[in-house]
Design a protein that fits this description.
Blueprint: H1 7-11, H2 21-40, H3 45-48, H4 51-55, H5 70-75, H6 80-98, H7 103-107, E1 109-111, E2 118-119, H8 120-147
Antiparallel strand pairs: 1-2
Helix pairs in contact: 2-6, 2-8
Length: 148
């Protein structure tokens, strides 16, 4: 979705108050990184591999985009290479982790704060669902720009 777009195009928004491609791709990678690191009990790629410093965003380290305001969305300015690099690193870490899991691991309850309690498998499926929705939104926004 980001290939061939300038930083201005990536940060552009189709209408006031909407999300940019840059924010959508950053957010989907941040959510995946945060949630997978949580179930894997590992440090996030964001901090472990220096992505937080490379992006240099005006957010707390733990920010993943939930609750972001319109001005927060506008603050995500990035190149396609940086967005792809972070996403690819998160994806690689996710695949590495998922390959270690057994069926029993997927059925393990990892969060009792919900009714019903959340298993590792359900959490991972929710991460995939969230990422796919935001990737689709970013592709939709790109399609709008390409047809203007």
């Amino acid at each position: 979705v980001v290939d061939g777009l300038s930083e201005d195009q990536l940060a552009s928004r189709p209408a006031p108050g909407t999300n940019s491609i840059a924010w959508l791709v950053w957010h989907l990678a941040r959510v995946q990184d945060d949630h997978v690191a949580g179930v894997a009990n590992t440090e996030q790629v964001w901090t472990a591999d220096g992505w937080e410093q490379r992006f240099d965003l005006p957010f707390p380290t733990a920010a993943i985009g939930y609750g972001h305001s319109s001005s927060d969305v506008a603050a995500v300015q990035s190149s396609g290479d940086l967005l792809n690099g972070y996403h690819d690193a998160v994806h690689a870490r996710t695949v590495e982790y998922v390959r270690t899991l057994s069926t029993d691991d997927l059925d393990e309850v990892i969060d009792d704060n919900w009714d019903p309690p959340v298993t590792r498998g359900v959490r991972l499926v929710s991460v995939v669902s969230d990422a796919l929705q935001h990737a689709g939104q970013a592709a939709f926004v790109r399609g709008i720009y390409e047809r203007r």
